[in-house]
Structures are given as structure tokens and as C-alpha cells.
Amino acid sequence: MELGxxxxxxxxxxxxxGIGLATAHSFAREGVATLHLAARxxxxxxxxxxxxxxxxDVTVHIHPxxxxxxxxxxELARRCAEVDILVNNAADSAAGPLHKLxxxxxxxxxxxxxxxxxxxxxxLYAHMKRRGGGVIVNDIGNSGENPDADYIVGTTGNAAxxxxxxxxxxxxxxxxxxxxxxxxxxxxxxxxxxxxxxRALDWYDDESRWxxxxxxxxxxxxxxxxxxGDLIVWLSSERAGYIxxxxxxxxxxxxxxxxxx
Length: 261
Known about the structure:
Elements lengths: L8 E5 L4 H12 L4 E6 L2 H14 L3 E6 L5 H10 L5 E4 L14 H29 L2 E6 L12 H21 L4 E8 L5 H15 L20 H12 L10 E4 L3 H4 L4
Parallel strand pairs: 1-2, 1-4, 2-3, 4-5, 5-6, 6-7
Helix pairs in contact: 1-7, 3-4, 4-5
């Protein structure tokens, strides 16, 4: 299927691993000409760039920075002002129930999950509006629609980003811009393993039992990062040109079943 992405440019935050890196590879396969990848790990970004440029005809720029800092988010937006597509993906919400989370943990998590997304969206939206078009995809998470007291920071941040995406995307076509969201459930990444171990500790007092939690999923497995990345890329494409203000859930039926995880 021709997605109409050839020659486009995209910024992917959290692009050194997991969903972000899988999304970058999917963009490159579809002919995106220029990729900007941002993440905290310079080493990880360099490895990502090397792998992408070895496999595809793509130019890759890397931006090692912590997007929990508003100044860094503003600087990244300045560097990437001309991109056609923004994928907000960098986030690291802490696991655990309310009584185990300090105010600082809340602020650190939400600086990444809400404020970096909002800042980059606001800044790049203005440039897209000036040019007459663009796409913003927010990688959010299914706990925003399936509230989870044992992941209360993530649940809160994700619900806020769902509302932000729907509100902005409901108006954005006036400016030729689409804004959409993706709600993954568990995805086979290092971050998922960390969260699952935390939940196994809460449930079973034994983090080594984290893989037992897969039995509670309708699909009996997590999604792959590639499955989520391919969805993000399709939503960024001309084939999804009539989709805006919408959240697409990719969680194997967890939220629809109202599963407890």
C-alpha cells in the first residue's frame, strides 16, 4: 500500500528504543527522507542512526536531550521546525499506587507525559499552520481509558493526553493539520518489563513472576513495538487523511474487556 510518505520529514521523541525506534524504522521503510530522533541516551541515538542509515536511504539527525526540561523541548522544536510529522512518544511514568508516590515522582512523570507533548505540539503546530499542513501523533496508553489505581500517574497523564488530543484534533483541520492518538496496551519493551515487575511485586510480592501476568490478557501476549510503530506510521500517512481528533487503541482487547491490567 502506498502511504504517500516519500520525501516527508518526521520527528520521533523517545526514538532510541522501543516504540520510538520501531516507528523510525517503519517511517524509513515507507520512504520518509529525513528523520529527527530525540531521546536522553546519546549512545542509543547514535546506534539507532547507524542502523537506520545502513538499512535505508534516509537522513537521520539525533538530538540527545531530556524532554522533561521545558527549555529542551523548546530547543528541539526550534531545531525541527520544518518537519511534516511529529510523533510524541517519550514518556516514563512511574508505576505504583497513590500512597507510594511522592509529589516529585508525580511532577517528574507528568513533565514528560504531559508537558513535553504539549510544548512540542504547540510549537510545531504553529509552523505546520504556517505551511498549511502537518500531522501530530501522540503515543499515549490504554490506561487513560482503562483507569488503573496501581499505575495512577500513568492513568492520570494518559487521560489528560487523550483529552488534549481530541480537543486539538477536533479543531486542527481548520488549519490543514491532523492530530491523532494511539493507545497501546502492554508492549514488549524494556519499559514494559519494568512496569510488569512492579505489578508482580504489588500482586504477588515477587517481581520474578511478571510473565504470569500475560495469562490475564485476552491475547495472552503483549504487542510488539513494530505493531504499534506501523500503526503510528499509517496514521501519519495520506491513507489516514480523514482521521483527526481520534484515539486508536491497540491493546488486544484489554480496555474493551475492562481487564484489571
